[in-house]
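A quick word before the example. In earlier lectures we treated sequence and structure as two separate objects. From today on, think of them as two lines of the same record. Here is Bifunctional protein GlmU written that way.
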Amino acid sequence: MNIVILAAGTGKRMRSALPKVLHPLAGRPLLAHVIDTARTLNPTRLVVVVGHGADAVRAAVAAPDVQFALQAQQLGTGHAVQQALPLLDPSVPTLVLYGDVPLTRAGTLKQLTDAVGQQGYGVLTVTLDDPSGYGRIVRDARGKVLRIVEQKDATPEQQAIAEINTGIIAAPTGQLAGWLASLKNDNSQGEFYLTDVVELAIEAGIEIVTTQPDDEWETLGVNSKQQLAELERVYQRNVAEALLVAGVTLADPARLDVRGTLECGRDVSIDVNCVFEGTVTLADNVTIGPNCVIRNATIGAGTRVDAFTHIDGAEVGAQAVLGPYARLRPGAQLKDESHVGNFVEVKNAVIGHGSKANHLTYIGDADIGARVNIGAGTITCNYDGANKHRTIIEDDVFVGSDTQLVAPVRVGRGVTIAAGTTVWKDVAPDQLVLNDKTQTSKPGYVRPVKKKS
Ligand code: UD1
Ligand code: CA
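And the structure line, produced from the sequence above:
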């Protein structure tokens, strides 16, 4: 089967410089969702019709299996499909989808194409409480489809019809080419309507098949920011529902956003207002506190992530404790049973098994061994103004509070660093390291007092 995705429209009502089909739903362009669904149907050809913002649309979804047809002027949906014809295989049917209708289930499309077969003509229709704005499905007394009438061309009786055209159709490609060539634009919008093909197919002796989706939202399109926000909620509700079915505990399914894929083990629990982006994996018994943002990360079994923790591009082992207010940046690797506490930032660094950095610390470009204790206010000075350097801290080191480690530097196993030390030279194992400082006290000191004006 060929699949054609119409994505040439302007999307004026979005009031945006971004082409409509590139507006993100769950963090990805609307069109990318449609392409994903199309791919699951294994099309022989996959053609996107571009027009408005063509270069940006092409760049955003370019892939070896996607071809583009340019519709330089938007002269109607029929005209749009016509532009794709040279790229289609005429020997198999064509399914037409819309770049701004992102949530149609693959199963719904499969049902339509199965019903249509190789030679039939099918339309996905849905019955709406408020059908206004849509093309109406006109049937005869016996229920046979006669034609589709656009809202703007419909009589009052036709406007009362609740069954509408979703726009999604399946048709035999060779014949479709002939029908499209004979379309006229003598209608209220002066456009070449794809919907008019229905009558031409009937004239050719084909009976129109219709199928319906399980859910109305599968056919909803995005024309405005309001509709985009509504579909975002539908998408997120579906994701939350699937997580609940899989056994994940969600404090509130309405306060979770997944922009990518979230894989969860058994007995995972997620508190309110968490955002997951990219690919995130949570192993068994992971607990995520409220207001966490987690992107491209794996988190090991039994690990607890406390409130307001931000994780990006990190790998966390089992039984670790993070946050509240921890920040893991790309390349952070936390081994099992490690603790990274409040206002601790870790970047491109390994925190070894059972090691702890519980308060107010920056660890960047570092390798920290096992059972290391990092005191509050410790900073790896990894940047000399031009280059980044590594700090190596071996097993069982005790780092006193307010320590600066000026990289490149290595601290040997078992070393104790006194509070307030600046370490700028390597330290051999099992030593105490401190800077010579004196503490001076001045007796009888009198604090200044504020002058009276
Ligand atoms: C179309 C259908 C209508 C259906 C409705 C469902 C026609 C004539 N009407 O109406 O029966 O109920 O969709 O939402 O088909 N597009 C192009 N090139 C064009 C025109 C449109 O690529 O020249 C694309 C648009 O970007 C959009 C889609 O086709 O994604 C639908 O076009 P639109 O103008 O919104 O059609 P409707 O008037 O809503
Ligand atoms: Ca429209």
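Notice the following. The CA atoms of residues 19 and 53 lie 6 Å apart. We will return to this example when we discuss secondary structure assignment.
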